[in-house]
Amino acid sequence: MSFIKNYIGDVWGAVKSLAAGMKLTGHYALHHKKEKITQQYPDNKDTLNLPERFRGEVVLIHDENNEHACTGCTACELACPNGTIKIITKFDLTPEGKKKKALDTFVYHLDLCTMCNLCIEACPTSAIKMDQTFEHSVTDRSELIKTLNKPGSKIREGVE
Amino acid sequence: MWSLQNIADSVQHWLYATFNPTIAMLIEFAIIGVLAIGLFSMLGLVLIYMERKVSAWMQLRLGPNRVGPKGVFQTMADTLKLIVKEGMTPNGADKLLFNLAPFIVMISAMVILAPLTFAKGFQIWDINIGVFFIAAISSLSVIGILMAGWASNNKYSLLGAMRSGAQIVSYELSAGLSILAIVVLSGSLKITDIIASQENGWWIFKGHVPVWIAFVIFIIAVTAETNRAPFDLAEAESELTAGFHTEYSGMKFALFFLAEYVNIFVVCALGAILFLGGWMPLHFGTGTKFNEVMDYIPSSVWFFGKTFFLIFVIMWFRWTFPRLRIDQLLNLEWKYLLPISMINLLLVTLIAILNWHF
Asked: Residue B234, SS3?
């Protein structure tokens, strides 16, 4: 008897799970106007609504005093799987007269970047983030090699 | 009163009054051929557009929306592209069979149109074994598919064709048994008789649970017979590139593509005729006010409405269910659908003998 019970149970379970799937897709078909996720990109350039975690390119965060939080520790350079980031460091003199390592140039090769987010995860001071820009096309390859720290910027007080 | 039946009758009277019977009949053949081909090309355009829209909506996309208003001319543009493409025949292929196969598939889809009733009294050929004729011809398309797979001289094509053969041979059984359920209830194989037997209610309402089971099995089996997902093992894009039509291009590919959609239309039309009353309006009992109101809607609207509803259901299947493996596919048929439909047929027979249906 247990064979027949299992058999009927199988059929019932199959019908139930298939119906559950059809209910979901049927709901989507009926409510596609509200729930659709496709963006009609070139048409809605002004009202483009990207998700919060969209990964466009790496940027170094600068505040209004042109200060950033990068200590030049090269954790991002080490975390990058394909050598996208190159940190060039210099030595600043502190008021006490000591030498201190600091960021000179943050070189970012956008043409090598796969937007994997590992550098952002690796950064101990949250100095870099992923920006939402994605229109990266340029007419010359050299334009894809970017310097992320702005000219004259320096490290923020108190960031170690 | 304008109806398809009146138009067809008056055209026939005019032809037989003007020409001698032989020429009149030949002209009728030509008209029917043009109408059938016209219906086919319309179906191809409409159903492919519908499929793309339905799939897009179920996946929260937009679907075609650039060519014409809401993308309605997209399929026409695609057809134009397919027409101007080169129809290649590979060097190692069996040239005759390779070029013949798409036409066999297409013609077998076309022949099934003969006994279908598109509106009240609007039918090409009211043959007395209509349902049996459809079941017989619909299994011919597997010959075309096997031919295509064999003649392509390509292992993927051959594998796809063989799978298609196994699939159609298996699923014909349960499709046939569920068709038989309605034949037992209505007591006739003739399409007009089956529709007439549903004048006081469609079989799906009159026949209790066994008819619902037969209906579900019928829909599953015809989905498999038309080689559509979740039973699209003959094409199996992920493992066999495109199955039996891997080597086809241009218009010959388009014929396979069109035949798939025409087959869907034909089996859904058959489902609508058997279970949902064909062109018969929604009736409950006889001579009620409700029936009179329903009669105002033209019969062709009823027929195409029901058919397109069933087509939508089959598309719904395709965009919801995961694909089956070949062993799962055969398990489903031989261990589940066939035993269930056999027991179900017994129950239907009992209902028919004891007159338990309404």
From this structure: coil
Is residue A87 within a helix (H) or strand (E), and if so which, with residue range?
Answer: strand A85-93
Q: Which of A109, A89, A111 is nearest to A100 (CA)?
A: A89
Chain B, 334 to 353: residues with Cβ < 8 Å from chain A are 336, 340
Which of A18, A21, A28 lies nearest to residue B60, judging by beta carbons?
A28
Chain A residues whose CB is inside 8 A of the B340 CB are 11
- Say if CB B167 and CB B221 are below 8 A apart: no
Give the list of residues 6+ apart from residue B88 with CB closer than 8 angstroms, or none.
B247, B249, B250
Using alpha carbons, select from B48, B323, B44 the residue that is nearest to residue B163. B323
Ramachandran category for residue A117: left, alpha or beta (phi over 0 → left; psi -120 to 50 → alpha): left
Q: Which two tokens stand for residue B4?
A: 């398809």
A52 contact B CB<8A:
no
What single DSSP character describes residue B322?
P
Q: What is the tens place of the pLDDT at every residue in A111-154?
A: 898 988 899 999 888 888 898 888 888 899 888 898 888 888 88
Closest chain B CA to residue A11:
B336
The model's pTM is 0.81
Contact across the interface for A29 and B57, Cβ inside 8 Å: yes
* CA–CA min distance B257, chain A (Å): 24
The ipTM estimated for the assembled molecules is: 0.71
